[in-house]
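Just curious. Protein, please.
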Amino acid sequence: MFGFLSQSEPVGYVHAVAVRMSARRRRLAQELFGHFVEFARRHGCKHVKAITTPSNLESIAFHKSLGMKLLGEPNSDGIPVVPDYAGRGAPRVVFWKSI
């Protein structure tokens, strides 16, 4: 789990959550995420945020399972994206959750 707290707004940003393939399906990623949410909350954050590419369907499913909202408008595949988030022509799926 790699996350950090914004220096300018009350938001915790989840950059990466990874679990070794042999340890998956044990809810470890959800536990790591939960620990980060509690850490962010204790440090005054009101929201957590995460970002992925529209093609990363596993990441999208994971973040949705955590109750995160997808911001933006549906792309041609029906996946909500924020256009040009990572630069011109680089849309991203932006997840947001109030904590």
Observations:
- The chain has a mean pLDDT of 96.
- DSSP finds two helices and seven strands in the chain.
